[in-house]
């Protein structure tokens, strides 16, 4: 075990009779180094937060302003219009010899106040500029004069060399839309897919809602809008995800795929070593805010606050998110066994080759899984109340092992089977790949973790992501960085291994042992999937974009001021295909079509012209309804769109994908 090996080399000096301990220089050195590391981390975060808070200004701009005020004073000018003299009067009188010092302090205080006012003005100006949405309506390839002017002003006020969270304070708040507009748009969205009778019933409900409930609910939203930074995000997280008592598997999680047509190395441990190193390097840069802000056209910045929750665990009773910003190990699952693998040494993050060595040690470990251990993780796929009850018992009897998993940076599953595109049967192999990533065997990933890294025996990768902490663009940003870094920047040697040299002095990965209470064991078997479960039926379709055609639905509605125009089937929202009048409430409608587009956010990381196969094939998710479809799509390079379509095998109302 890693702790046992490390404890051997960390013995405080004792007297010869084993009595009173003596002061030990190595122990004091370890304490000093640990404290120094902690303080450096805190100071770095404080400094980064300070730089983010004053952006687009900088500390140098304060120094320039202070110097200009001092120069003006030297020339017997008063740019403060008497304010510095009033500040000097408020300062303590230290005697005549310190009169000049009082003047310097007064100038520094005035410069700080003026600097802060200028920063506030810049923030307000940038927020107002970013509230402009006219660019969204511009035709492709053209730009109006107002939009050009707006873009120039945004670039002027945006500053240079921004850090990741530099624009957070300047982003406009999510506005509360008019309830009348919301109801109107809702009715417009459902009109093409409802019969006249069902639409009349839905419109009646909408009018009843406007008369009886809308005004009070709208008042609640406006109150929260003025009180909180975002009126919807925390409620969305809690009521849509954390309060749900359903299983996370298929119902909540989603998956992200590797390169579709290439695998950089067939060596499983090497791919795991590079990928884990790249993921933790992303976390390191995230903590130091060295990642560039996510931007739209021109200089338009997006909210990236959810990036801070990348490494987290969802806990039960009640469900909440635990943030793990500095975890220095990963939890690894292989052939029914759990391991704790340290990812850092005293000098920092382990090299990819050292991590490969640790994963290879796990792959070579012949020890069998203990009884019930192999299917233990299936409990995290159980209904949440069942898992909460079992977790309480597990925490009492196997708390150390449970904390090693829940406190890990993320979960790694070393799969014993290959995955990915197979030339013999491309369609079936891609569908199986999607199945393996989203649900696997149901017991080979810890669904509570923010994400699980899946590494298959042939070197193929993938992510299974828990949904509550962020939507796909956040995890997609991390995944793009990971694929580009592990393939193009870290790279592999000619024999497929990570570059560099192994470190034989590293302690072996620690095998986790679970003392399972008797009442836990039946729960493990009850949660373990049968051959028919998970209830997930995926289909992955790479399609040339030139051959893609949007097919109109058979019933379309004319726009008020134009000729009738077809309404496309594809949509980037959820759409109720058949609202049910007998339910008596819109809340009971089943959303039978859920669609989402995965954006490629960091195109500079990939050279799609020279290496067109080195692009991610996106990811997918399960259907939002037992009798519905989940559809995700991503543009791969310049000429391909990949669709991820899913339904449930148990449904009698959907077309089987396989």
Automatic annotation (TrEMBL):
Transmembrane segments: 104-126
Compartments (UniProt record): Mitochondrion outer membrane
A GO molecular function held by the record: carnitine O-palmitoyltransferase activity
Residue ranges of domain Carnitine O-palmitoyltransferase N-terminal in the record: 1-47
E.C. number(s) listed in UniProt: 2.3.1.21
Residue segments, region Disordered: 559-584
Catalytic activity: (R)-carnitine + hexadecanoyl-CoA = O-hexadecanoyl-(R)-carnitine + CoA
Primary location: mitochondrion
Keyword Transcription: no
Membrane topology type: Multi-pass membrane protein
Family classification: Belongs to the carnitine/choline acetyltransferase family.
Listed name of the protein: carnitine O-palmitoyltransferase
Organism listed in the record: Equus asinus asinus
Gene that encodes it: CPT1C
């Amino acid at each position: 075990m890693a702790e046992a090996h490390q404890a051997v080399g960390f013995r405080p000096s004792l007297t010869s009779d084993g009595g009173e301990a003596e002061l030990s220089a190595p122990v004091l050195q370890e304490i000093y180094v640990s404290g120094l590391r902690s303080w450096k981390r805190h100071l770095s975060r404080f400094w980064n937060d300070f730089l983010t808070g004053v952006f687009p200004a900088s500390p140098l701009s304060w120094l320039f302003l202070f110097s200009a005020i001092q120069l003006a004073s030297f020339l017997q000018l008063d740019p403060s219009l008497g304010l510095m003299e009033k500040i000097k009067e408020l300062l303590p009188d230290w005697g005549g010899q310190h009169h000049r010092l009082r003047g310097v302090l007064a100038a520094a205080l005035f410069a700080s106040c003026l600097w802060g006012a200028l920063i506030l003005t810049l923030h307000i100006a940038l927020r107002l500029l970013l509230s402009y949405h006219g660019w969204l309506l511009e035709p492709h390839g053209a730009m109006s004069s107002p939009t050009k002017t707006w873009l120039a002003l945004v670039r002027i006020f945006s500053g240079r060399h921004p850090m990741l969270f530099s624009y957070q304070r300047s982003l406009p708040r999510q506005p509360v839309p008019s309830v009348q507009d919301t109801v109107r748009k809702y009715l417009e969205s459902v009109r093409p897919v409802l019969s006249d009778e069902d639409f009349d019933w839905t419109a009646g409900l909408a009018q009843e809602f406007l008369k009886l409930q809308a005004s009070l609910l709208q008042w609640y939203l406006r109150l929260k809008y003025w009180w909180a930074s975002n009126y919807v995000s925390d409620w969305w997280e809690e009521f849509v995800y954390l309060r749900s008592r359903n299983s996370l598997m298929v119902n909540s999680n989603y998956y992200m795929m590797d390169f579709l047509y290439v695998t950089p190395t067939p060596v499983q441990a090497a791919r795991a070593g590079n990928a884990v190193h790249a993921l933790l390097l992303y976390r390191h840069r995230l903590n130091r805010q060295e990642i560039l802000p996510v931007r739209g056209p021109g200089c338009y910045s997006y909210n990236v606050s959810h990036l801070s929750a990348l490494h987290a665990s969802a806990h039960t009773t009640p469900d909440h998110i635990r943030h793990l910003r500095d975890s220095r190990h990963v939890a690894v699952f292989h052939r029914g066994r759990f391991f704790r693998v340290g990812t850092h040494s005293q000098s920092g993050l382990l090299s990819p080759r050292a991590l490969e060595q640790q994963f290879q040690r796990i792959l070579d470990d012949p020890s069998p899984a203990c009884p019930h251990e192999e299917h233990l993780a299936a409990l995290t796929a159980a209904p949440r109340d069942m898992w909460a009850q079992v977790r309480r018992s597990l925490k009492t009897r196997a708390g150390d092992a449970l904390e090693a998993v829940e406190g890990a940076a993320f979960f790694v599953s070393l799969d014993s089977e290959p995955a990915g595109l197979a030339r013999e049967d491309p369609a079936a192999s891609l569908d199986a790949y999607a199945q393996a990533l989203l649900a696997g065997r149901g017991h080979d990933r810890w669904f509570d973790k923010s994400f699980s890294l899946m590494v298959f025996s042939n070197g193929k990768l993938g992510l299974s992501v828990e949904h509550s902490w962020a939507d796909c663009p956040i995890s997609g940003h991390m995944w793009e960085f990971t694929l580009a870094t592990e393939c193009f920047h870290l790279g592999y040697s000619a024999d497929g291994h990570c570059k560099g040299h192994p470190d034989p002095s590293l302690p072996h990965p620690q095998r986790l042992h679970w003392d399972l209470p008797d009442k836990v064991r039946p729960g493990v078997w009850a949660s373990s999937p049968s051959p028919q479960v998970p209830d997930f039926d995926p289909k992955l379709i790479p399609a040339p974009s030139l051959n893609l055609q949007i097919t109109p639905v058979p019933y379309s509605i004319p726009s008020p001021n134009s000729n009738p125009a077809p309404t496309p089937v594809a949509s980037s929202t959820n759409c109720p295909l058949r609202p049910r009048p007998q339910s008596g409430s819109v809340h009971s409608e089943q959303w039978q079509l859920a669609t989402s587009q995965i954006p490629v956010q960091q195109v500079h990381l990939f050279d799609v012209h020279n290496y067109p196969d080195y692009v991610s094939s996106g990811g997918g998710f399960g259907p939002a309804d037992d009798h519905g479809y989940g559809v995700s799509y991503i543009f791969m390079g310049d000429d391909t769109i990949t669709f991820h379509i899913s339904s449930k095998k148990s449904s009698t109302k959907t077309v089987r994908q396989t």
